[in-house]
Design goal:
single chain, about 625 residues, alpha+beta, Immunoglobulin-like, Zincin-like, Neutral Protease, domain 2, 4 domains, 18 helices
């Protein structure tokens, strides 16, 4: 970067805020996917200022080494070059200098996800953890960022979407934004491009709904109406008397792609990625399964505004972004959120009770299929998220349990237990509100004086008992710290709901999950104790033929189903497969398809009060 360019960028950053750390970020080269970042430190440490980039992003519990995307970095002071010594993989120390220190660096942004940064001719997106170096010792100072428009003609009509407070910028415009400290700076992602935008209010708070990506005939008004109901239901859930939201403004940022799904929560926004087929269309008024899933994603990330962004485990009250931060409580913070995300859809009126029961049934089936749930508790799964849940391999279904899905069943079981024990006078809702009042409501105001707190690892049982009067220690020991399944059939019995376990599928199965690899049918997962495993087939093996007939189909799943569908349960088939470049010939005795078919059903008519789907309660008559 030339001195002239540096000077212009420094002048663009406002002055007058004492002790502020100042950044400039500009899309430098769209085709090369490069952001150019300038960091100005007015008062660097006399011994040599240390700067570093986070190794992970809160909400996604895996060390991602964002510093690997720094293409080049250099420093100057008073127009003279300053040496930077690299101390470790993401930390640099500048040689002591007189006057302000200016650090310039390039970020390679080609991660199309909600976790990092992405830049091309269609849009730009970044999380602060991917692009903003932290200044050692000055993390509590105000942080100013000047988001500049690229000179590329493709950016001529771009706008900016972020929940960062504007300093000298119009809303949706390029210019300067401000954060109270570094923690706040990196908790407001930025989207820039030609996005669709709609704004609504939820209990008086403005919410922006931003969609990037091509969706012909997108029904934006329908999405806004549905999401507005969900937001208002959640605000009223935590603050039933005042209906006061914990933020002054909120932004939903959605990237629409051909195939993808995910979200990441922030204190006043969320970054989402979804499949184009999940977006509702104007000429298709029916509720598709994809759209229902998208609404659940919006609900999930919005619920995190309270649960994990403000109600936190003690281990997350003060993040150390240089290394793993361990907690055994993700079953509560992600699992409870996964329970309430669908629950809020029915409470808000976005779906009916029948649709809600189908979603719960789906979750039960997902959990009960994997044998890993019998080997790893959700407390262990939470602690091991850094090494197991976020680094899954072909054996994961046989070795781990999801703290999202089983955590949601734990929440459901606790809710039913509390409601039954108190005859509907208390519920898990009271627990969430108690957590909010004790830990979340004033979290960020406490952060200004460093007194913010989080839930300690073993305090949840006492808090539940204090909030509801119900002792759940035995329940937690059995279903959270141990591996017992939550007895939902028994718990649901008092609420007019039956859990029909069914008889399983009558189709023959090898007990595998397959994926397409070119034109090959490759085993992605071989489920423990099933036919393929017993025949000594493994994940990564390529299936070629069954009883001499080649597996052929454009869809490998269909091709395998057709091939297996010729046979009955109990028959033995000869399978030809390749492991690496070696041909295997094995015999497998087909078993019944192991896909669970658990299904929740109302025993009473549709006007009965379902305990988990409505805030009021009436115990169903025993039969």
């Amino acid at each position: 970067m030339s001195k002239t360019t540096q000077s212009k960028r420094q002048m663009a950053v406002p002055v007058g805020i004492a002790g502020a750390v100042q950044y400039t970020i500009v899309p430098k080269d769209l085709a090369a996917h490069l952001f150019d970042v300038t960091l100005e430190i007015a008062q660097p440490e006399a011994e040599g200022q240390i700067v570093s980039l986070p190794a992970w992003i809160p909400g996604s519990y895996m060390v991602r080494e964002f510093s690997r995307n720094i293409v080049q970095i250099k420093a100057t002071s008073e127009g003279k070059k300053v040496a930077l010594k690299k101390l470790d993989k993401h930390t640099w120390q500048a040689t002591p200098c007189q006057g302000s220190l200016i650090v310039t660096y390039e970020i390679y942004a080609w991660d199309l996800s909600v976790r990092a940064a992405h830049l091309d001719q269609s849009h730009g997106f970044f999380n602060g953890t991917s692009v903003f170096l932290s200044v050692r010792g000055q993390e509590a100072a105000p942080h100013i960022v000047d988001i500049q428009r690229s000179a590329d003609a493709a950016c001529k009509t771009w706008r900016v979407a972020t929940s960062l407070p504007e300093l000298k910028a119009k809303r949706y415009g390029f210019g300067t934004y401000i954060a109270a400290n570094y923690d706040e700076l990196i908790d407001h992602p930025v989207e820039m491009g030609d996005f669709a935008l709609a704004t609504f209010e939820a209990h008086g708070v403005p919410h922006d709904f931003v969609v990037t990506g091509k969706v012909p005939n997108m029904d934006m008004s329908r999405m806004v109406a549905d999401v507005q109901k969900i937001c208002e239901a959640q605000i009223a859930f935590f603050e039933p008397r005042t209906k006061k939201a914990p933020m002054d403004r909120y932004v939903f940022m959605t990237m629409v792609v051909g195939e993808g799904y995910g979200g990441l929560e922030h204190r006043a926004s969320t970054a989402l990625i979804c499949n184009r087929n999940e977006i509702p269309l104007k000429h298709q008024p029916e509720m598709s399964e994809g759209y229902k899933s998208f609404l659940g994603l919006c609900s999930h990330e919005y619920f995190h505004t309270w649960n994990v962004k403000r109600i936190k485990p003690a281990a997350f009250a003060h993040y150390d972004l240089s290394r793993e931060n361990y907690t055994s409580l993700l079953w509560l913070f992600e699992g409870f959120t996964s329970y309430y995300d669908d629950l809020m859809l029915v409470r808000a009126g976005a779906i009916d009770e029948a649709a809600y029961l189908k979603l719960v049934s789906k979750t039960i089936n997902m959990v009960t299929r994997g044998s890993g749930r019998l080997k790893q508790s959700v407390a262990e799964s939470s602690f091991d998220a850094w090494t197991k849940y976020y680094r899954q391999d072909e054996n994961s279904p046989n070795a781990i349990v999801s703290y999202y899905t089983k955590g949601s069943l734990v929440a459901l079981g606790l809710d039913l237990t509390i409601r039954a024990a108190t005859e509907g006078k208390k519920s898990l809702d009271d627990v969430m509100r108690a957590l909010w009042q004790k830990f979340g409501r004033d979290f960020y105001s406490r952060s200004l004086n460093g007194t913010q707190q989080g839930l300690e690892e073993n305090d949840i049982e006492a808090l539940i008992e204090q909030a509801t009067g119900v002792n759940v220690r035995r329940f937690i020991d059995k279903h959270v710290r141990s591996t017992e399944d939550v007895p939902l059939a028994k718990l649901y019995a008092d609420f007019g709901v039956t859990l029909d376990a069914g008889a399983g599928s009558k189709k023959a199965s090898l007990g595998i999950k397959v994926a397409r690899d070119g034109n090959d049918c490759k085993i992605a997962n071989a489920f423990e104790g099933r036919a393929a495993h017993l025949a000594r087939l493994s994940a990564q093996d390529v299936l070629v033929a069954i009883n001499g007939l080649r597996i052929t189909s454009a869809d490998v799943v269909d091709g395998l189903n057709i091939a297996i569908g010729r046979y009955r349960i109990g028959e033995t088939v000869e399978i030809h497969a390749f492991r690496r470049d070696e041909l295997l010939v094995v015999k497998a005795k087909l078993q019944a398809d192991d896909v669970p078919v658990n299904q929740l059903k109302l025993e009473v008519d549709h006007q009965a009060v379902l305990a988990t789907a409505r805030p009021t309660y009436k115990k169903a008559a025993k039969r």
